[in-house]
C-alpha cells in the first residue's frame, strides 16, 4: 500500500461554530455554562476490553466519513504538482486545484458513482495553513456548481448557478482564522474544520462543439493560497496537464480503500483535532479520547479495539454500499436522501452516503435517486432487460439538467461497445415515443437500430440505476415528483 498513513499534527481548539460568512472572533464559553459542564472521563481508569470494543465500534461508524476525507487529504499531500493522477483524475498539491477538460474516464476507481454529465475539478484545502481563494468565472447560461465540503462532508459554502453567484473571487477560511479580507474578495465562507474538499462541476453537452466551447470558461477555474491573490484571474489550459502516479493502492473493481481498520484508532485523535465537536458532541469526543488514551497504555486493548474496527467495517459499513439498504423509501423501490451536505447528527445517513457515493451535492443543488430493484422488487441484473418510461411532460423537472446513469455492483462504469454510461439532457438525439413519452432501454443488448439512441447498456451482473436532477425544481425538492418504475421486459 503506497498511501502514507502518518498522522498529521493538527491542533485545533474547540470553539463555538460561527455562521459561515461571519469573521467575528468566536465567543468564549460563558463562565456559568463552563461551570455546568460535566467532568470528562478519567483517562487513567482501567477499562474492560468489552467497553473498549463498544466505544471503538460506535466511533468507527461515526467517524468513517471523516477518516475517509482525512486519508484523501494525505494522498493529495503527496501530489508533486498539478496534474492528472494516472492520466485520469484531477490531482493537485494541498491548497491547489486541477480540472479535467472532458468527462471523467470510465476506468477511475477513486470516487464511486462518477458521472459523465459534467467536467469535474478537485482540490483539498488545509485551512489551518492558509485561507484559499476560489476563482469563479462567468459561466453565462451554462449550469455550474462548486461543491465545498468540510471533513464531515457537510457543505459550508454556497457557490453555484442556483445561488446566483457572481463571477469573482471567493475566500474559504478555517474555524480560527482572524486575518483581514483583502479588497476584491466577493464573499467569505468559514469552515467548521480545517480540511475542505472543493469539487467544481460544469455541465457539458456530449458534442464536439461543446467540448471545445467549454475550454475557455473552465480555464479560469482555480484555487490557491490567499498570499497568491492579486485580484486577477489566473488561467490554465487544463487539456495539457501532466500524468502523475497514484499514491494509493487501487481497489480493483471496488472503490480505492480510504478507511483502514488497522490504523483507525491511532488516526482518530488527529481527525478529531481537525474537526472540533459540533454542539452536543463534546461528551462523545471526551469519551473516545479517554478510551484511546487507555488503549495507548495497553497493547491488548488497542488490538481488541482494532479487531472491533474490522468487525464494524464488515458488519456495519459494507452493507451500506447497497442503495436498497438505506435512504428515504419512495414508490417503485427508488430511494433518496433529503439532507445531503447538511447531515448534522444524522450519523447513519452521513456514513451510508460516504460508503456508497461520497462527495454528493447539497439537496437544493442536486437531488439523487437510487435504484437497485425493478418494479416487482427483483434485483436489477443484466440477465434481463428493463424499461424506464417518463410520461409526456414528466421528465425530471429541473432548472439545470438531469441524467440516468447505470453502475455495476461496485458503483462504477462497466465498459460497453458504445462507451455510454448515462442518458439525459446532454444527449441531443433522444427519441420520444408517439405519445410524447420518453423510454430509456436499460439492457445488455441493443433494442434495435431505431431505438439505439435511447439505449443504456447494462453489465451482465447486478447493477444499479442512479438518477441525478441538477438544480431541482420544487416538485422534486418537496417529493411530489418521483422517478418512474423500472419495469422488467
TrEMBL record:
Source organism per UniProt: Neorhizobium alkalisoli
Protein name (Swiss-Prot/TrEMBL): DUF1254 domain-containing protein
Record keywords: Signal
InterPro entries: DUF1214, DUF1214_C_sf, DUF1254, DUF1254_sf
Matches recorded under Pfam families: DUF1214, DUF1254
Signal peptide: 1-24
Domain DUF1254: 94-225
Residue ranges annotated for the DUF1214 domain, each copy included: 366-473
Keyword presence, Signal: yes
Amino acid at each position: 500500500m503506497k498511501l502514507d498513513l502518518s498522522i498529521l499534527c493538527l491542533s485545533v481548539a474547540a470553539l463555538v461554530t460561527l455562521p459561515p460568512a461571519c469573521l467575528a472572533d468566536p465567543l468564549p464559553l460563558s463562565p456559568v455554562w463552563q461551570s455546568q459542564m460535566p467532568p470528562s472521563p478519567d483517562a487513567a481508569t482501567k477499562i474492560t476490553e468489552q467497553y473498549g470494543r463498544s466505544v471503538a465500534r460506535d466511533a468507527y461508524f461515526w467517524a468513517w466519513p471523516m477518516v475517509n476525507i482525512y486519508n484523501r487529504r494525505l494522498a493529495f499531500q503527496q501530489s508533486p504538482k498539478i496534474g492528472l493522477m494516472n492520466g485520469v483524475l484531477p490531482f493537485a498539491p494541498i491548497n491547489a486545484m486541477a480540472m479535467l477538460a472532458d468527462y471523467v474516464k470510465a476506468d477511475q476507481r477513486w470516487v464511486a458513482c462518477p458521472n459523465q454529465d459534467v467536467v469535474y475539478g478537485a482540490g483539498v484545502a488545509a485551512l489551518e495553513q492558509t485561507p484559499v481563494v476560489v476563482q469563479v468565472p462567468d459561466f453565462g447560461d451554462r449550469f455550474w456548481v462548486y461543491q465545498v465540503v468540510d471533513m464531515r462532508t457537510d457543505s459550508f459554502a454556497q457557490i453555484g448557478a442556483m445561488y446566483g453567484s457572481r463571477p469573482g473571487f471567493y475566500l474559504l477560511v478555517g474555524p480560527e482564522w482572524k486575518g483581514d479580507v483583502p479588497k476584491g474578495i466577493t464573499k467569505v465562507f468559514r469552515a467548521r474544520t480545517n480540511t475542505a474538499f472543493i469539487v467544481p462541476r460544469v455541465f457539458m453537452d456530449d458534442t464536439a462543439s461543446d467540448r471545445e466551447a467549454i475550454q475557455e470558461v473552465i480555464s479560469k477555474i482555480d484555487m490557491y493560497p490567499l498570499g497568491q491573490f492579486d485580484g486577477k484571474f489566473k488561467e490554465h489550459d487544463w487539456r495539457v496537464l501532466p500524468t502523475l502516479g497514484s499514491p494509493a493502492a487501487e481497489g480493483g473493481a471496488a472503490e480505492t480503500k480510504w478507511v483502514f481498520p488497522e490504523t483507525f484508532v491511532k488516526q482518530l485523535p488527529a481527525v478529531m483535532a481537525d474537526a472540533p465537536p459540533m454542539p452536543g458532541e463534546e461528551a462523545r469526543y471526551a469519551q473516545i479520547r479517554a478510551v484511546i488514551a487507555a488503549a495507548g497504555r495497553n497493547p491488548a486493548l488497542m488490538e481488541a479495539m482494532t479487531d472491533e474496527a474490522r468487525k464494524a467495517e464488515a458488519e456495519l459499513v459494507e452493507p451500506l454500499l447497497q442503495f436498497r439498504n438505506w435512504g428515504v423509501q419512495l414508490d417503485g423501490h427508488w430511494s433518496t436522501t433529503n439532507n445531503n451536505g447538511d447531515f448534522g447528527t444524522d450519523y447513519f445517513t452521513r456514513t451510508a452516503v460516504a460508503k456508497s457515493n461520497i462527495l454528493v451535492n447539497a439537496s437544493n443543488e442536486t437531488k439523487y435517486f437510487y435504484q437497485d430493484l425493478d418494479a416487482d422488487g427483483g434485483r436489477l441484473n443484466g440477465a434481463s432487460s428493463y424499461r424506464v418510461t417518463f410520461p409526456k411532460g414528466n421528465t425530471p423537472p429541473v432548472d439545470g439538467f438531469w441524467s440516468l446513469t447505470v453502475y455495476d455492483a461496485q458503483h462504477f462504469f462497466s465498459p460497453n461497445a458504445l462507451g455510454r454510461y448515462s442518458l439525459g439532457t446532454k444527449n441531443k438525439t433522444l427519441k420520444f415515443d408517439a405519445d410524447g413519452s420518453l423510454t430509456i432501454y436499460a439492457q445488455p443488448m441493443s433494442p434495435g437500430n431505431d431505438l439505439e439512441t435511447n439505449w443504456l447498456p447494462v453489465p451482465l451482473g447486478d447493477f444499479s440505476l442512479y438518477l441525478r436532477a441538477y438544480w431541482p425544481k420544487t416538485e422534486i425538492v418537496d417529493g411530489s415528483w418521483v422517478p418512474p418504475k423500472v419495469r422488467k421486459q
